[in-house]
Amino acid sequence: MAEIDQIREKWGSKIGFVLAAAGSAIGLGNIWKFPYITGENGGASFVIVYLICIAVIGLPVLIAEILIGRTTQRNPVGAFYKLSQSKFWASLGGLGVIAGFLILSYYAIIAGWALGYIIESINGNFYLWPDPTSAAGHFNDLVSNNYWNIGYFAFFMLLTIAIVFGGVQRGIERASKIMMPVLFILLIILMIRGLTLPGAEKGINFLWNPDWSKIDAKTVLLALGHAFFTLSLGMGAMLTYGSYMSEDDNIPTAAFQIVFLDTLVALIAGMAIFTSVFSVGLDPAAGPGLIFHTLPGVFVKMPGGYFFSILFFISLAIAALTSSISLLEVVVSYYVDELKWKRHKAAIILGFIIFLIGLPSALSFNLFSDIKIFGLSFFEVVDFLASNILLPFGGLLISVFVAWIWGLDKVIPNLKKGAEKLFENYPITLVFWKIFIKYLSPVLIFLVFLNSIGILDKIIELFE
Q: Do 379 and 364 touch, CB atoms closer than 8 A?
């Protein structure tokens, strides 16, 4: 492993780190995925289970991942090598870099759709396709148009490259300090608008009155999986962002603030979406098409919908951008740390390579639509590999490494740096964290992993 012989960049402020890390966690999953899986799984009961899962699996692993980065001041590969002196663990850490490549290659395609829908809303095109069926047809026509699909994909990648090109303070931190407050303001405006619509109380009841008959083992596993994925765990993003922290920073407090902001955005987005959907009498369980198929029709029927549709898709694009810069930063940090590339060179070249890797996925909706790998398109294969294998495996790796390889006797002194008063005043928090990270989190992540690759159902069937 190469040693660092250059001054490593740092965050300019604690709030800069929290906003950037929260931005990494807050992405399409909060505004797109969380509302529709909540809608499909009974509303409030799912939200409660999800919040418990965040506390049990999300927060402990988030603390562990940030701690690895701050302690080593390295990228995922260099961090695991420094703590273990093992090329085996370093290579496993490299899975985070690979995950960054793959996830961004298709994530930026979906984010490009959000950019495209900003223009669609400005042009008033939603009024031409006011019902979910025609809106879905219009969406399919757009994504199958390679000029539209690849064009917005390329534009979104350029925005991502430009921010990472600027560096930690002048690029990522500065952009996060602008984008995150704007995102919150826009979502709050949308939530207030939803709450003032006739029939909004039905959406509020759906989101906050639990129906426990909807909860079963699969629902709990879904909540566990989303709690894990929503925080950008297992891909090295939080580790990389943590590597730019100082020893004076309080990791547990920062991690709690990140989890709080991430969850708050998901709930605000849910309030904004469900009050609006129920107000116009559409289906809250519309699935993945809720954003691009159902909501355009909601905005058409909503007073002032033209204006609010623009705000919504701007919010969606901002959330996507705050996540995409963390994905590219994982890859860039590896090349800067280990291979001694200059940041500007790494951002441009690696961003372009990721764009090229993403082209087959972008073409999956048209030219390559008939090409299947195990019955899946290029887009679906990359999504499955990254989301169902690399991320849960990466999270399992982090929890096992911290508790069993690095060892809690070495971990705890590093964790206490900057958080001495917290653990003095609330020693029970350290006890719970040790139990979670050593026993509970690895088991639950392993179940998420088995469920995500479709093995858990077969195991359950053997015992029935």
A: yes
Task: Specify burial of residue 425 (Cβ count, 10 A radius: 0-12, 13-18, 19+).
Answer: exposed
Question: What CA–CA distances, in Å, run from 461 to 197, 328, 347, 455, 464?
Answer: 46, 41, 48, 10, 5
The answer as to whether 2 is a domain residue is: no
427, burial (CB in 10 Å: exposed 0-12, middle 13-18, buried 19+): exposed
Question: What 3-state class would DSSP assign to 300?
Answer: helix
User: The domain that contains 146 carries what CATH number?
Assistant: 1.10.4160
List of residues 6+ apart from 98 with CB closer than 8 A: 390
- Residue 426's pLDDT is 87
Which domain, by its residues, includes 70? 14-462
- Kindly state the tokens that stand for 102: 């793959």
Q: From the CB of residue 170, how many other CB atoms can be counted at a distance below 10 Å?
A: 13
Q: Residue 179: in which H helix or E strand, if any?
A: helix 174-195
- Identify the burial level of 37 via C-beta atoms within 10 angstroms of its C-beta, where 0-12 means exposed, 13-18 middle and 19 or more buried: buried
Q: Does 5 fall in a domain? A: no
pTM, two decimals, is 0.91
pLDDT per residue over 390-431, tens digit each? 888 888 889 999 999 999 999 999 999 999 999 888 889 999
Helix (H, G, I), strand (E, B) or coil at 373: strand
Identity (one letter) of the amino acid at 287?
A: G
- Which two structure tokens, joined as six digits, stand for 52? 């418990």
Is 217 among the domain residues? yes
CA 135/CA 260 separation, integer angstroms? 34
Provide the b/e sequence for 139-153 (b: ≥16 CB within 10 Å).
beebbeeeebbbebb
Residue 376 sits at φ, ψ, to 5 deg, of -115, 150
**Residue found by looking up tokens 């026509």 in the block:** 141
Q: Under a CB-based contact definition with an 8 Å cutoff, are residues 194 and 272 in contact?
A: yes
Q: What is the DSSP string of 145-159?
A: -HHHHHHHHHHHHHH
Q: Element (H or E) spanning 398, and its range?
A: helix 391-400
- Residue 208 is predicted with a pLDDT of 84
CB of 43 within 8 A of CB of 209?
A: yes
**Residues 117-141 pLDDT 10s:** 999 999 999 899 888 888 888 998 9
Per-residue model confidence (pLDDT) at position 4:
44
Which whole number is the average pLDDT over 365-379? 82
Alpha carbon distances (Å) from 131 to 138, 161, 219, 280, 293: 11, 37, 30, 11, 8
**Token pair in block for residue 108:** 């930026």
Task: Tell which residue, 205, 230, 228, has the closest CA to residue 61.
Answer: 228
> In this model, does residue 62 exceed pLDDT 80?
yes
Torsions phi, psi for 341 (to 5 deg)? -75, 150
Is residue 209 one of the residues assigned to a domain?
yes
What's the domain count of the chain? Answer: 1
